[in-house]
Amino acid sequence: MTRIQSLRLRDQIVDRLREEIVCGKLSEGTPLRELPLAKRFDVSRGPIRDAILQLASEGLVEDRPNRGARVGRVWDESTRPAMVKVRRDIEVLALRQLMSQEHEIDLSPLRENLRHFELACRDEDLSAVVRLDMSFHRLLLTLSGHPALESVWLPLMGGMRLPYSRHESLMESHAEHQQIVSAIQDGQLRTALAALKANIQ
């Protein structure tokens, strides 16, 4: 197997496990053992190990030496509102930083994400929707030019489980993402912030 094939295989496994974690199929604390997962996906343990490392980097999995990997904890109902507010504050800060930059912002990664997000919503491809939604918000952090924000943001995302289900809510989320990108392009900070805050619930 070539390196490219191995990466594609890993990404497919990551997509499936990410969807199952975020949508609650794999509950908090569920062990993620390499051998059973390798049998399930009919692969060697290498791609499974790589997939677990990727999910750990996203805050969805806890991977501790000598204790193995398990699905990360979920914020309880009493904690969730505060965590949502912290997440929103981080992304608001990132968006303000992004739009205060003097040089022209390359919005092509966000536009490409929007294009794929719309297709995934139309197809109700939940795995792709989960991946692209997280990717969109990570792109905002990346474009802000402050990498440290992402390291704070990821664990927050890992503790949230997002309600992806109805087609209407998927398209509403896409519309809010579109509003954010359009407002950034037009230099409309207040509009961009309003759309971002509406999108993070």
TrEMBL record:
Chain's gene name: ydfH_2
Task: Describe the location of the HTH gntR-type domain by residue ranges.
Answer: 7-74
Please name the taxonomic classification of the source: Bacteria, Pseudomonadati, Planctomycetota, Planctomycetia, Pirellulales
Query: Which PROSITE patterns does this UniProt record tie to the protein?
Result: HTH_GNTR
Q: What is this protein called?
A: Putative HTH-type transcriptional regulator YdfH
Q: Which PANTHER family match?
A: TRANSCRIPTIONAL REGULATOR, GNTR FAMILY, UXU OPERON TRANSCRIPTIONAL REGULATOR
Alphabetically sorted, this entry's keywords are: DNA-binding, Transcription, Transcription regulation
| Pfam families reported in the protein's UniProt record | FCD, GntR
Q: Does this entry carry the keyword S-adenosyl-L-methionine?
A: no
The entry lists its GO molecular-function terms as: DNA binding; DNA-binding transcription factor activity
UniProt keyword annotation of Transcription present: yes
Q: Which organism is it from?
A: Novipirellula artificiosorum
Which SUPFAM superfamilies does the UniProt entry name for this protein?
GntR ligand-binding domain-like, Winged helix' DNA-binding domain
Under InterPro entries, the record lists:
GntR_C (IPR011711), TF_FadR/GntR_C (IPR008920), Tscrpt_reg_HTH_GntR (IPR000524), WH-like_DNA-bd_sf (IPR036388), WH_DNA-bd_sf (IPR036390)
